[in-house]
Specification:
- The chain has about 100 residues and is mainly alpha-helical.
- It has one domain.
- The chain contains five helices and four strands, in the order βααααββαβ.
- The protein starts with a strand and ends with a strand.
Length: about 100
């Protein structure tokens, strides 16, 4: 079984703000998803290098995903470390990370 995260004490707003303001760190520090943090950070940087618009879209989807994942964790779900809550972000990141999963895709 892959590494899982169970953190019923997370705050979705703090997770989203940290993701939005400090290099996607809400995924890592608040939600406990290190691999997801790394993959979304890489996808954001690559998207920004290619053109600002794709990087911005990935960044916005990452903030939404961070909030949704924190909500799921607060509802006492156990989530795999590399599972995405935002289907569009999952489809983008899946291009660089074949181990990514999404319960809503």
């Amino acid at each position: 079984m892959p590494n899982t995260v169970h953190r019923p004490d997370v705050n979705p707003v703090v997770s989203a703000l940290l993701t939005a303001l400090v290099f996607n760190l809400g995924h890592f520090l608040i939600n406990g998803q290190q691999r997801k943090w790394l993959m979304t950070l890489i996808a954001t940087f690559v998207g920004t290098i290619l053109c600002c618009v794709p990087g911005g879209i990935i960044w916005i989807l990452s903030v939404i995903d961070s909030y949704q994942t924190a909500e799921r964790l607060r509802n006492e779900e156990t989530i795999p470390e590399n599972e995405y809550s935002q289907p569009w972000l999952f489809k983008i990141v899946q291009l660089i990370d074949k181990t990514a999963t999404c319960s809503r895709a």
